[in-house]
Write a structure and sequence with these properties.
2 copies of one chain form a homodimer. With 208 residues, the first copy, chain A, is of the alpha+beta class. The first copy, chain A, has 7 helices and 11 strands. In chain A, a hairpin with a 2-residue loop joins strand 10 and strand 11. Chains A and B meet through helix 2 and helix 4 of A and helix 2 and helix 4 of B. Chain A binds a DNA duplex (30 and 30 nucleotides) through helix 7.
DNA sequence: AAATATCTGTTGCACAGGCAACGAATTAAA
DNA sequence: TTTAATTCGTTGCCTGTGCAACAGATATTT
């Protein structure tokens, strides 16, 4: 699901026109949205991959999510016309279209027939983000690190639907996502491996 | 914000009609939505208060959120036409209208002018739920129980905008929400009190 | 190739917090 | 009022995990 699903190429172009969408390029590690920045446009990833995170009050970083090509971000703040509580950085060289959300919601002056479709897509997009957040909450709610790891792996296994699946994150990133210490993660992974519960080699994992 | 915001009483009635909404009553502690139940309607709370939670794979309970009068729940599952991964129970005697979400999205056959308004409201509702979930993630991402408690209290203080504010939850409920052990919560609360960082009496709290 | 930086795993130590057992206080039921 | 049930706080014990320090592996730069 993405906001342009079911909409033809030329209609997408038309839409980007009639909403005065602005497209920008960002280098790897460049900040796309700053924490505290007032937002009125959603970001649509034309090319690349971004990280959505926030600074904890103790200064540490909390990873909220990752988003890739064809996905959107900052919908929530754009809809509320609020300041962003997260910052968004380019994980690799990326290209982003910023689409004014009010122009999506309001009736198109040119009376585009696909406006309604976009609105419905936006609804479904935000809705599915909700599910993603709930999954993260489920993982974070696990009492032990062992359970957090296993749940995360299970979800990835389901997603990829493969016996051996790849986690596209560094150990540090996984630890941050789980909200735990990196070395504790390494220790627990090794333990799970020695217990024969999982197996892994670099970023390839397997649950037995 | 709720899905009927800005819509007149008689139009709401009209809408409930033209979407064939069904209204049901539930006793305290009665289950409104079961885990695994196929959902195609959103729940709109006419009266009462509900708890949204889920069963962890170890059998323990994870509280997702609470919802009150005029608020909605299960939008996410209804939109995806999916099975619910949460169950919803009445915290007190409640009255719920179930509104078929497809009838909200599709153009109204009677051509209601407020249909568009509802759709926009629904969008904003789901969007703001997103924020609520993110706040919970922020709390759960705190490394220590102390930080979790303080962040929770700060958020409630902000919400109520009062020096002394009430947490409408039992200790057990707070602990479940934070994903920690109840006695550990009590211990930490007492410690924070003795350190002079907070003060509390039953459910009334104060941050110094 | 050599030098440097980044990533990952290992281990010792300390302590936060889970769990069990208990008692006191409060509320509900008989 | 008495009894039972629920809620809340306290404490001892023990395990899980954060942290620091380090080493080896891998990737990047010069």
């Amino acid at each position: 699901m993405n906001i342009f699903k079911g909409i033809k190429e030329d209609e997408i172009k038309h839409l980007l026109d009639c909403t005065n969408a602005v497209t920008k390029s960002f280098k790897k590690n460049e900040i796309i949205i700053h924490q505290g920045q007032k937002i009125n446009s959603i970001g649509y990833i034309i090319k690349g991959c971004v990280k959505i995170s926030r600074t904890n009050f103790d200064g540490s970083e909390i990873t909220v999510a990752y988003a890739q090509k064809d996905e959107t971000f900052a919908e929530t703040f754009a809809l509320a016309n609020k300041q962003s509580i997260v910052y968004v950085t380019a994980k690799e060289d990326s290209c982003i279209s910023f689409i004014n959300v009010n122009k999506i919601i309001s009736t198109c002056p040119k009376n585009c027939t696909f406006h309604k479709k976009i609105l419905e897509n936006l609804l479904r997009t935000i809705s599915s983000k909700n599910l993603v957040l709930q999954e993260k909450i489920e993982i974070l709610s696990q009492k032990t690190l062992k359970d957090k790891i296993l749940l995360l792996l299970q979800k990835y296994k389901q997603e990829t639907n493969k016996e051996i699946f790849k986690l596209p994150f560094s150990r540090e990133e996984i630890a941050t996502y789980l909200g735990v210490n990196r070395t504790a993660l390494s220790r627990e992974l090794s333990k799970l491996k020695s217990e024969g519960i999982i197996d892994f080699e670099k970023n390839l994992f397997k649950i037995k």
